[in-house]
Amino acid sequence: MNSKPDTKRCLWPGDDPLMITYHDKEWGVPVHDDRKLFEFIVLDTFQAGLSWAIVLKKREGFRKAYDNFQPEIIATYDETKIGELIQNPAIIRNKLKIRTTVTNAQTFLDIRKEYGSFDRFIWRFTEGKTIVNHWETEKDIPSHSTESNSMSTELKTRGFKFVGTTICYAFMQATGMVNDHLIDCFRYNKLRAMS
């Protein structure tokens, strides 16, 4: 890791180039595009019980297998397509999570129809703005919050699966609903200026 102050980053990417690129370019950047929001829902569904590094390494495989994360297409997947996904070594082949992605896409579209966009619905949980935290060490970062608890409850009520409060908090971190970069990470102030 570069020791220059302007490149000091959170510790969790380690020395993995893929994780470093994700941390430096994506993690915590506010996302308002519905397709991108759905991509993170899919990836976080598959992260349940696994490390983010495993999911990230298979991200391109997921992108190809899941029609670039387009919920309109995924919502129509039939048993033949589900069978193909279960056999696809480029993704995480968990049958329950694969089936869940289809029903989550259908629920996602229902919410988008109701609110005009999924973005409008999901950002309500942080009142439309990024929650800027002030963590000094990684052990300070929580695994959930009041907002992720509320999000989890409502998503479950609407029919989403694999959306426990910890998964919802990971989603919030990824999509910039919270800024959980450590205060001495070079990304912290850059993202703070965006929020």
Top keywords for this entry?
Endonuclease III, domain 1, globular, 195 residues, two-stranded parallel ribbon, disordered N terminus, 11 helices, mainly alpha
In summary, what is this structure?
The chain has one domain (29-194): Endonuclease III, domain 1, CATH 1.10.340. The protein is built from eleven helices and two strands, in the order ααααααααβααβα.
**Sheet of most strands:** 2 strands, parallel
What is the CATH third-level topology name?
A: Endonuclease III, domain 1
Can you list the strand order of the major beta sheet? 1-2
Global shape: globular
What does this structure look like?
Helix content is 54%, strand content 2%. It has 195 residues and is mainly alpha-helical. It has one domain: Orthogonal Bundle (Endonuclease III, domain 1), CATH 1.10.340.30. It has a two-stranded parallel ribbon. Helix 2 packs antiparallel against helix 7 (95-115), helix 2 (34-47) crosses helix 10 (165-174) and helix 9 (146-158) packs across helix 10 (165-174). The model is unreliable at 1-5 (pLDDT under 50).
Please outline the helices and strands:
Layout: H1 17-25, H2 34-47, H3 52-57, H4 59-65, H5 71-74, H6 79-86, H7 95-115, H8 118-122, E1 131-132, H9 146-158, H10 165-174, E2 178-179, H11 186-194
Parallel strand pairs: 1-2
Helix pairs in contact: 2-7, 2-10, 9-10
